[in-house]
């Protein structure tokens, strides 16, 4: 169940994020094609920070799951 | 910027981190309130609700940033439609995560996920388009 949940969440995130480059080619010129590539670097940094925050949430959720499982076993 | 030097770190904090942190705070406030109102009262349940929001919200905000960077002059309707589609994905992901973590039945967790995400989406729209 754990691996299914992980796979589902990662797949969903990738489904959302993967079309971005395709959309970029279809749209107007991107800010990072301009001489100043600052925005692309900062979006990359934001991606890393987002992943870090999400991982902390995942760590918290695993603790919640462990507690819920223990409560269920004690109740059974 | 006359007479001032450009500080990329300050700009990054003001343009990206500040609104992202505000969005996460607003989401947590709305979703925890909805969970409480729907009868999810134990500390473990509420921690689980907060945790799934912390997992999904940063990527939602990141998608919004990327979208607004690509389409700077995007009109409100396509933006709202894209965000609504993204929110549906998030409802499904959060439902599965909540069901797994809280060991509660599927109907209760899907209802919680749908209602709390609808509420936070509405709150986000109000803040964004106010």
Overview features:
heterodimer, A: 76 residues, mainly alpha, 3 helices, 0% strand, B: 130 residues, 83% helix, globular
Polypeptide structure, described:
The complex is a heterodimer of chains A (about 80) and B (about 130). Chain A has about 80 residues and is mainly alpha-helical. In chain A, about 80% of the residues lie in helices and about 0% in strands. Chain A is rod-shaped and about 60 Å long. Chain A starts with a helix and ends with a helix. Chain B has one domain. Chain B is built from four helices and no strands. Chain B has helices at about 10-35, 45-70, 75-100, 105-130. In chain B, α1 crosses α2 and α2 runs antiparallel to α3 (about 75-100). In chain B, about 35% of the residues are buried. The interface of A and B includes residues 4 and 47 of A.
| Percent in strands of chain A | under 5%
Contiguous helical run count of chain B: 4
Low-confidence residue ranges of chain B: none
Distance between the termini of chain B: 27 Å
Low-pLDDT stretches of chain A: 19-36
Structural class of chain B: mainly alpha
Portion in helices of chain B: over 70%
Shape of chain A: rod-shaped
How would you sum up the major sheet of chain B?
A: none
**How many extended strands of chain A?**
0
How much of the polypeptide of chain B forms β-strand, as a percent range?
under 5%
């Amino acid at each position: 169940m754990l691996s299914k949940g992980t796979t589902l969440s990662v797949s969903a995130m990738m489904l959302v994020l993967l079309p971005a480059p395709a959309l970029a080619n279809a749209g107007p010129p991107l800010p990072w094609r301009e001489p100043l590539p600052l925005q692309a670097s900062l979006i990359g940094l934001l991606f890393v920070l987002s992943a870090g925050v999400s991982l902390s949430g995942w760590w918290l959720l695993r603790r919640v799951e462990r507690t819920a499982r223990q409560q269920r076993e004690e109740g059974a | 910027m006359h007479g001032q030097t450009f500080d990329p770190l300050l700009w990054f904090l003001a343009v990206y981190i500040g609104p992202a942190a505000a969005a996460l705070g607003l989401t947590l406030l709305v979703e925890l309130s909805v969970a409480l109102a729907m009868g999810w009262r134990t500390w473990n349940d509420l921690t689980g609700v907060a945790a799934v929001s912390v997992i999904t919200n940063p990527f939602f905000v990141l998608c919004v940033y990327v979208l607004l960077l690509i389409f700077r002059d995007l009109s409100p309707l396509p933006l709202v439609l894209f965000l609504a589609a993204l929110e549906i994905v998030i409802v499904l992901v959060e439902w599965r995560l909540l069901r797994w973590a809280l060991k509660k039945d599927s109907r209760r967790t899907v209802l919680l996920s749908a209602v709390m995400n609808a509420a936070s989406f509405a709150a986000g729209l109000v803040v964004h388009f106010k």
